[in-house]
Fold:
Amino acid sequence: THAMGKLLKDEQFIHWSLVSLYYHSLRHKVVTMSLSTWYKYAGLLAVNRPKPRSIKHYSGSITATMPNQYWHADVTYFKTGDGVLHYIYLVTDNFSKMILAWAASTKLCAKIRADTFRQALKIAIIHQPGIETINLIVDGGSENNNATVDDFLKCIDTIEINKIRALKDVAYSNAHAEAINKTIKTYYLNRMDITGTESLQKKLAVIIEEYNMQRPH
Structure:
């Protein structure tokens, strides 16, 4: 319990959920207990860890059985300390939970959205050569559904990318993307002092590197 208490108080992991910290502890052989026992002792130790400002639970989505079977694209909003509203674009993989591409801008537009799809495709091909089909789940926003995005998707010869509008073309939602947006905002951005666009972009680069490469999912 001493090692566990030390981890729970460690500032390095202050943005991680209890379940992520549990799997990190297993990975590094800090503990050997079950997840239920972990939660039990976390309660008994009564370490005062900051809680997310808001958590919303989503349902009715899909679960992939392999990487790059389903991608999710979503845009969330964040106001920096200077009062400027920013749009955070993410493209994520359903299976691995990896953030394949991102952008942060004061503009909501088709070009930035298409650029994130281009970035995601480059990353996916590096990690998994020979991909034949990707199902891209988007919401009904104008940044996703326009000639710029559609023309880009059509011009890809080697991979078929099927754009699917959540709750319109299919019955399920884009909950996967919305959940990751919530994690980035509630566990990270809402706890940080972010003064403007440059500050937001620098923080996001660090956050997403940690989210993808260090934080267990």
